Structure formats: C-alpha cells, structure tokens
Amino acid sequence: MEFGTTEEVEVIMKNRSNSYKGDILNIVYSLDLSCNNLRNEIPYEIGDLNGIVALNLSHNHLIGPIPRTLSNLTQIESLDLSYNKLGGEIPSELSILYSLEVFTVAHNNLSGKTPEMTAQFSTFSNSSYEGNPFLCGPPLSRLCSSNTESTNTSATTSIGVNGDDGIDMTAFFASFAASYVVIFLGFAAVLYVNPYW
C-alpha cells in the first residue's frame, strides 16, 4: 500500500505516540492490534513478518504459548504481549532479538524462568514481567528452583487449558474435606462434653 502526502497515521510504539505523514509512512512497519478482543493462540505465521519494527497485541484474550517464530522478527524494536491469557514459558529464542528496546509480557499466565539477563534482555525491568505469578528469575524477586518451576508449570498449564480462573481443584477439595472433618470433630467434642444436648 502506497501512502500519499496528505495521509496521517498515529502510531504508538515504544510507549510513546508518534504521528507520521507523507512518504515516511511507506517505510514505517508497525502492527498494532491491541484492544481488539482477539481470541485463541497467536498464529506462528506472525514470525514471517520479518520487516516489522513494532508489534502490539496487548489487551486481548490471546491464549496458548508465545510462538517461538517471533524470534524471526529480527528488526523488531517493540514487542507488547501484555494483558492477555498467554501460558507456558517465554521462548529462550527471543534473546536473539538484538534490536528489541521495549518488551512486555506483563499480566498473563506465563510460567517458568524469565529469559537470561543478557544483551537487550538485561535492560528490561520487573514491569516487563509483572502479573505472572508463576514466573521466576531476574529481574523478578521470586527465585527459581527445580521444584518451583515444575509445580508452577503444571499449575499454569491447568489454568490455561481448563479455564478455571486459577482455582486449583485438588487443593479446593482437600481443604473442603479437612474443614468437614474439623467441624464434625468439633461437634462430636461438644456432644461428649455436654451429653444433654
């Protein structure tokens, strides 16, 4: 699509808004699909958009894992996947995106270890990952352990697949049964102490 000199487009990239007008629009490659009520998984074919500079899929209802094919976006400078329902681990392949300046996967259901704090990933703060209770590792304060990672991965998988909004049904039934036993024993103790009731 060729743009003329009169068209003007507002592009939000790298957490700031810019207006572009004229011939520059023919070389700005940005895809902003935020706040569109998108559902299902991110298509792996999105990794074929290798000339894209900014990709914003935030504030949707996207589920499933982050596609490893996003590592093909070698020109990308801004990647926003926040406020979705994405699950699984953050692909380690994303660490080869050396042009990446803005990265956020905040407020999803991601689990496991954050990407290694090398190259551009050493510049991303806690805010890039916040709102993912099963993520661990720097820059987050939650440390990873082998038990934590495997437990959190299975818990996140069950949340994402079953859609039960974070309720661990095994723990729920166990606590229900324990409460029932305690109430029964308490009632029996009262009747033992005061047999006239």
From TrEMBL:
Pfam families, per database record: LRR_8
Gene3D superfamilies (alphabetical): Ribonuclease Inhibitor
Record's keyword terms, sorted: Cell membrane, Glycoprotein, Leucine-rich repeat, Membrane, Repeat, Signal, Transmembrane, Transmembrane helix
InterPro entries according to UniProt: Leu-rich_rpt, LRR_dom_sf, RLP_Defense_Trigger
Predominant cellular place of this UniProt entry's protein: membrane
Localization terms from the record: Cell membrane; Endomembrane system
Domain of life: Eukaryota
Membrane topology reported for the UniProt record: Single-pass membrane protein
Cellular component GO terms held in the UniProt record: endomembrane system; plasma membrane
Cell membrane recorded as keyword: yes
TM annotation in the entry: 171-193
Entry's family note: Belongs to the RLP family.
PANTHER family named in the record: RECEPTOR-LIKE PROTEIN 14, RECEPTOR-LIKE PROTEIN 8-RELATED
Protein name: Uncharacterized protein
